[in-house]
Amino acid sequence: MKSKKQIRHVAIAGNIGAGKTTLTRLLGKHYGWDTQYEDATTNPYLSDFYNDMKRWSFNLQIYFLNSRYQQVLSIRNGTKTVIQDRTIYEDAYIFAPNLHEMGLMEARDFNNYFDLFKTMSSQVSAPDLLIYLQSDIATLVSHIQNRGRDYEGSMSLDYLKSLNNRYENWISNYKEGKLLIINTKNLDFQNVPEDFGKIINLIDSELHGLF
C-alpha cells in the first residue's frame, strides 16, 4: 500500500469473546497483511490469573504491557503492514483499572503499572486505523462458550459486563487516531461470507481516507 501514506499499523480492539483473533486472521489473509496476535497460549500467567485474580493481576498486566509494547515497536520499525490483535491501550484503560476498582489490584500496583504505561505509550504511535468490535453480553458469552478455553470457565458475568462498560466509555473518548466501530451483534463474519464482505467494505472506505 503506497500512496500519500503507507498504512503500517491496523489494530482490532474488543472485549473478551468479541472475535478479535478470528477477524485478525481473516483480514490478514484478505489484505496480505502480517498478523500480530495476543499471547494467550504461551502466557505464563493467564490460567493462574483466572484462578486467583488478586494474586496474579499485576503480573499479568505487566506481561501484556511488555508484550504489546514490543509488538508496536516491531510494527513501527518494520516495512510491512501489520494487523494487531488488541492494543496497548486496552489493558491500561480497561483491564487494569477494572481490576483495581474490583479490589483485585492494590492501588500501589495499579499506580506503578499506569506510570509505566504512560512512559511506554509516549514512545510509540497509535494505530493508523483502530477497528472496534462492539458486542453485547449475549454475543460475548456465546463466543466464549463455543471456543471452550478452560481458563475462561471461571469468568463471572459481572466481570464481563464491567469490561464492556469500560470499553464503551474508552471508545467514546478515543482521540488517538482513526476509528471504525463495527457492531457484531448480527454479524457472523467467520462463517457467512456476505457478513465478512460487509466488514471489508467498511474497512476499504476507511483505508481510502487514509491514503
Describe this structure in words.
The protein has a single domain, classed as Rossmann fold (3-Layer(aba) Sandwich). The mean pLDDT is 90. Helix 3 packs parallel to helix 5. The chain contains eight helices and five strands; from the N terminus they run βαβααβααβααβα. The termini are close together. With 211 residues, the protein is α/β, with parallel strands linked by helices. The longest helix has 25 residues. A five-stranded parallel β-sheet has the order 2-3-1-4-5, sandwiched between helices.
Global outline: globular
Number of domains: 1
Poorly predicted ranges: none
Give me the number of helical elements. Answer: 8
Distance from N terminus to C terminus (CA atoms, Å) equals 9 Å
CATH architectural designation: 3-Layer(aba) Sandwich
Q: Look at the structure and name the CATH superfamily.
A: P-loop containing nucleotide triphosphate hydrolases
In sequence order, what are the helices and strands, one letter per element? EHEHHEHHEHHEH
Strand content: 5-15%
The CATH class label is Alpha Beta
Provide the helix percentage.
55-70%
Number of strands: 5
What is the oligomer described by this structure?
A: single chain
Outline the biggest β-sheet.
5 strands, parallel
As laid out across the biggest beta sheet, the strand order is 2-3-1-4-5
Keywords:
211 residues; alpha/beta; Rossmann fold; 5-stranded parallel β-sheet; 8 helices; 5 strands; 55% helix; globular
Tell me the layout of helices and strands:
Layout: E1 9-14, H1 20-31, E2 34-36, H2 46-51, H3 53-77, E3 82-85, H4 88-101, H5 107-121, E4 129-134, H6 137-147, H7 157-172, E5 178-183, H8 193-210
Parallel strand pairs: 1-3, 1-4, 2-3, 4-5
Helix pairs in contact: 3-4, 3-5, 4-5, 4-7
